[in-house]
Structure prediction request, 836 residues.
Amino acid sequence: MAGFIIRRLLLLIPILLGVSILMFVIIRMAPGDPAVAYLKLSNIPPTPSAVAEARHTLGLDRPILSQYASWIGNAVKGDFGVSHVTRRPVIDDIMHFLPATLQLAGVALLFTLVVSVPLGIWSARYKDRWPDHLVRGFAFVGVSTPSFWLGFLLVLLFSLTLKWLPPMGKGGWQHMIMPVLAVSFMSLAINARLLRASMLETASARHVLYARLRGLSDRRVERSHILRNAMLPIVTATGMHVGELLGGTLVIESVFGWPGIGRYAVTAIYSRDFPVIQCFTLFLVTIFVLCNLVVDILYAWLDPRIRLNAEAAL
Amino acid sequence: MRGVLVGALLGIAATIAPASGVVAQTLNFSWPANVGPLNPHAYAPSQMFAQGMVYESLVKYQPDGTVAPWLAASWTTSEDGRTYTFKLRDDVTFSNGETFDAAAVVANLETVMANRKSHDWLELISQFHSVKALADFTVELQLKDPYYPLLQELALVRPVRFLAPSQLPASGNTEEGVKAPIGTGPWKLVETRLGEYDVFERNDSYWGQKPAYEKIVVKVIADSNTRAVALETGDIDLIYGDEGPITPDTFARLKAQGYQGEISPPLGTQAIALNTNKAPTNDLAVRQAINHAIDKDTLISTIYHGTQTRADTLFAPTAPYSDVGLKPYGFDAALAASLLDKAGWTLAPGADFRAKDGQPLQIDLAYIGTDAVMKSVAEVLQADLAKVGIEARLLGEEANAFYARQTDGNFGMIFGNTWGAPYDPHAFVSSMRVPAHADYQAQLGLPDKAKIDAEIGQALTSTDETKRQELYTDILTRLHDEAVYLPLTYSTAMLVARDNVGNLTFGATSFDYPFADLKPKD
Prediction:
């Protein structure tokens, strides 16, 4: 198992290297000049000499290969350069904004699981009866609702009309309710629907029939023989949700004025802040890869067949 | 189940007290980013509005375009226009108690001059030759050439404002940063929470009229919808700004709900540049027809909800040197059509758009695709132009790509703004001589472009007031008669405030925020 984890972690190196090259080239191919964007932010008219000066200050006047070489050289040492916009080291900014995002995404993930699993079970238990219809309808609405739109609706209801919740900013737990709801709604709906399908599929398997024949109670069959086996797709989906939730914070943090890396990254994209975009992309890639790894490990733990196969292969 | 969930949440929410009440004497404002390190001689990430709260200039720009004494109590100019002698006020201290004197002015100006390259965009800095202290409160500024807009540009928020000398870095070079943002202004920056807010407190030792508010909290809100909601819930008390802090329809909605909402006098002009160097806008008749074809009043009432005013000339007549009696191109679709007919742009039977010698009357209109207001304006222009047989092809692009077009002249029509007070008209016409500007590109096809450029140069260095006015009259008349621009609206700053904010006013330029004039109200 340890060998498996180490191998997978080592694989992260070529992945990150490949992504960094791709991304470095792609963001420079997009229209728009970071030097001009910087001047606009500074309210300086972009005269040719001002643009040239800004390019030089931002280190963009060197050949792309030399830019990449020095950037990757420093990045390996944990130095991702200085943001064009905030003029602070990118890594300091990211570390400053990261905890708020992790807090938001973490609570959202927890909320997703705590709500979606019972919903999925409930729906499967009462297949084709009203709880099932309700959950399926809810899932349908969930996957079709853009998070920022839901965010505005929530604000309209809870902040403007009812005046119960603060519309923006970070503070007590009240500040978290609406961003968490908005960002997790889609993942939650997908998860509930997925668990329902998976449980129904497992319920028709032979081992479930035998369990019933053995006279086990419905509850026991559901818990020990259906749910456990039906959890595998949920584990995969949850791995993806971590990425989705972190990506979802890009939009939601702007809507709710949440001081996290999502809003920071959006600002960076608007102002062509290359060092920030580069660091943020690598960060997201790392998260995705690590989540996949965790999912694979959980798989092995949940499903002895995978674990035994893997051990046999060693 | 969903009902149960929502119900449970409502139950939780019901136990929460409403958002905390507004503390009297504190004004809550918002801005898309933190105010930054507030280095008076540097640009982004230091935010101009906040630099203007902490630092002050030698002279102050007035709404009528003249300048008034400020940190400088008076000044004299030498005969040749190259030497300015400023007599400073002797009762001014920085917010840390240091005296503001000639030595402080010299220390600040020297570091600005040492970093000329960073301030290259501003003619004033290139014109600085030297500065010296003649007495404790007397400073002499030598210029390379006479430059009449010197006083206007000295009023700018940056880079000629003054940091307490003790806060300069050891090298004296502010390009390396400042120790702490200490200025002479009415406000002091006391706290910054990255991504959350900045707090300013009143400078109680301020030499001038002290602000009525004790504290200003500037919350970081990037999204304009979120900003409007924050006003409605009382999280902020004031929305103010010239670059669309909220959309015009939100402004109209908030005003209809009973919030105080006001629009400033013209600050600058939104004008479309028509490319004289590219077919078919290289034809004067086409440019004139475009000017007659647009129904600006309807545009303003429908899209801007009355938040801007109609512009008939490139600069508002209220701008310095700009009241030169130009005759507006009025809205007259029939006249536009007849101008086109006369010039040979005719409508074939059954065709929607005109053509001349097989060349269709088709013009690319470049705008920023992500800017909802600009997009709507572009669509209205397209519709108005179609009515007279001109086909405008909309070219909505991402902002940076749009700016690239301004620079390389690859457009038929393109949105643009004059720079506003105090840059209008001198700095804006000055930029017309620079190839990287849409204005230069648009004017390239004019037969008298060289003459216009020469006259601009003369107007900027002339020391004779009458001569200068003559030059401006000629430049502005030529540009107007050649119909190089389609002036649309005079841009304004907008202000929306809750009932607890009183004495609402506007700053003289879009960079002056009138926080010191606002007063709390019950």
Observations:
- The two ends of chain B are 46 Å apart (CA to CA).
- Residues 1-23 of chain B have pLDDT under 50 and may be disordered.
